[in-house]
Amino acid sequence: MKLHEYQAKEVLASYGVPVPEGRVTHFPYDAWMVSMELGLPVVLKAQVLTGGRGKAGGVKLAKTSDEARDIAQELFGKKLVTKQTGSQGFTIRKLLVEKAADIDRELYFSIVVDRTTSRPTVIASKRGGMSIEEVAEKYPEDIIKIPIDPAAGFLPYQIRRLKYDLELTAQEKEAAKIFAALYKAFYEKDCTLLELNPLVVLKSGHLLAVDAKMDIDENALYRRKDISKMRDLTESDPDELEARFTGLNFIKLPGNIGCMVNGAGLAMTTMDVIKLAGGEPANFLDVGGEATPETISKGFEIITRDPKVKAIFINIFGGIVRCDKVANGIIQALKTVKVKIPVVIRLTGMNKEEGMEILKKAPMKFYIAQDLRDAAEMVSELSNDKHSATEKKSTEKENTKAEKKEK
Ligand code: GDP
Ligand code: MN
Description:
By secondary structure, this protein is of the alpha+beta class. Helices cover about 40% and strands about 25% of the residues. Helix 5 (about 155-165) crosses helix 6 and helix 10 crosses helix 11.
């Protein structure tokens, strides 16, 4: 889960990391007031869950309160498209207004979890302000990497070395305190990323975290209630939110094959085999180990709401749940949710034969696949446009026929 900059700064401030004075605003008049309160000049910063805002026009300096109000007027409701967002961008709904910092030098500081060493790793550079990817490309010698043993923590000798490399000898005590506090925050809040770009040296010689980015491990949120309540629901996809509230694990993807799978591992495999068969998944959906008629219905509802989905692939493993129960669940779900696109089903595991029999006798038409590869090829074929035009008609016809028969 990503925190907004202002939220990350709140967390860091509680650890004693110096951050600029500021307030979140929602209206131009707010921005005018806050700039008066803080004193000028101020910076106005778009609070959207992405980086690269400065270059995209999402970070602006105002010398007067009227200017602050005018900038806010222009930014509220605007779509900010940055290098990291893709073309759809993010709508600006909140602006952080902060007292502008009098910057002497910009540094880069981050802590990430390095998967190859399985350790938190501090990455720092005296070339802050630009993206770390750009520093890595142009000045690889200026990147400092310090792996941390989580059992020992960020040790004093490592902190000393960092201060030396970042030329912070004049900020001796202050820098040591800040680096230790940053690691503590990273560790105690279960971050997967903590990034200050820039961490600045002010003209006064003091340090200040001018920007902050914090990503929290979703799997740790259950024990970080203070953090999980910071989630900005307005920034989430409504379908993904609805899925989460019903206990489904759903993520939208750019393709056109809707997937309904039980178990995250099988869901990943399913996407892989679809890709191998030349198809493109439209979503990742894990209905949970126990695929019930309710979760299956909800899955159908959410998948079919997306107009780009041309075929659905149901791939269920009867481990916790029996295949015959799943087959009945699918039929029951399809009675409530009308699905007008082809549905390919592959069932395996406990009571597979019974499940297949139930599907064959069902009043709707499905494509029943024998194995995973078979299924992936079938659904990829059905999802391409040429096929779906004729296919759709015949499926619709059969389904109406089936409905009539039932009545
Ligand atoms: P990002 O582009 O999304 O990473 O947003 P940042 O908060 O990092 O802002 C981008 C750049 O704007 C920084 O690298 C600074 O150069 C500049 N900037 C941000 N805040 C201030 C400030 O208070 N004073 C000054 N002088 N520059 C600032
Ligand atoms: Mn930044």
